[in-house]
Structure prediction request, 511 residues.
Amino acid sequence: MNKKSVTEGRRAVITIRGLKKFFGKNHVLNGFDMDLYEGETLVIMGKSGSGKSVMIKCLIGLETHDEGTINIMGRNMENVTEDELNEIRTEVGFLFQGSALYDSMTVRENLEFPLRRHVEKMGHFSDATPLVLEALESVGLAHAIDLMPEELSGGMKRRVALARTLILRPKIILYDEPTTGLDPITSKEIVLLMKSVQQKYKTSSIIITHDVDCARFISDRMILLVDGINYAEGTFAELDASTDPKVQAFFKS
Amino acid sequence: MSFFRTSMQYILKYLEEVGEMSAFAGRFFRELFRRPFESRELLRQCYNMGNKSLLLVGVTGFIIGLVFTLQSRPKMLDLGASAWIPSMVSISIVREIGPIITALICAGRIGSGIGAELGSMRVTEQIDAMEVSGTNPFKYLVVTRILATTLMIPLLVVMSDAIALFGSFLVENTKGDVSFRYFFDEVFLSLDFVDLIPSTLKTFFFGFAIGLVGCYRGYYCKHGTAGVGVAANTAVVETSMLLFVLDFIAVMVTDIFY
Prediction:
């Protein structure tokens, strides 16, 4: 399927070529290729265990890949030092499936944590509160600033995690199943929020999801990951219209 | 043959673990001198480990002093050596009983706490979240905790020793009408730097071992929530064994030099 219409004239911010990842005899990724273009929202769908989460973990350096190349904003991830990797990570936000809020810290401290460790990027500040409030306001949770994570609902946790991701002003955001485990109404709220964040901060996004409604609403382009390779690629409408049985299995289920 | 093979596999796995833990300790020393220094977190950990262990360590020390004196007193009276009780108790407590018992108590309270906390952070992806935000979780979580235990255990041991001696004095005072001044004069007369310095130095190693094993088990926790329990449990068991090994080494080294 043709991706030219969606990506024409845009610069690739992430390029993956021939990515392979093995866990013993289990070949999770078998030569995955991908490009993410500036300002684009790319949705990656696939069955459980198809290697979606492993792929974005390889992308951000949480997992090491066995073969292939990953290039983020012009930097080959295999040649970066630890300091350079940390610098790249401030430009690439990651929203975890389980939110991964620091449960011994308040919401404010959760947001201040990355901020205080990257003062060189954010500029020196004596009081982090305005920055924290701005990030929380963008997810509609300024009132929860002094709450502990245990006092938040699942949807609120996801929002706070998104605010924590946004506070370093990343250029790219990776979402690992952002609506999993949420009720349909909260899921819809999170998807709308992701859309508004993308428009406000002009970020490029990769969204790993099983949620077809989410994909329909938010994606510029989609990749279907089957058996560790990008099996099909195109816009939601193109994949939805596909007659391939493996593609249809996702859209008609 | 099968027994031999199983034994070899067990030994190899054990050696592998020892190697990994040594590498973990090596990383601690490398990261210790690199910026940023997480001083706020270090102080918080010192407070949590030190201040919040005071009651437990104090009560344990007090009871050790009481029991030890109560148990040894009749035999010393039989031998006509009751005047030696303060000396014997002080040397035993300061040299051996105080440090090892306090360290074992702290291995249970602090070591298991570190193992469970870091293990839970690992399985809920909080450590990964720190990493992807461009922060060094090893420095923030591991270096501060190992440093805090290394600094706090010696202080807790000194406090425990003092309270144990006070407990011993109470028994002597109640049963033998020994005055406070006489008891502690005897204590300080019998204690030399040879008793104090090695026994205090080894407590730094005890503290380091408690932090190291707790952090190692928690940081590399696997297999979900069940793994958190295993991490906490293994941290206590391994630390306790390591403490006895370190104590043995410390006694041997002291024996060579003094």
Notes: DSSP finds eleven helices and ten strands in chain A.
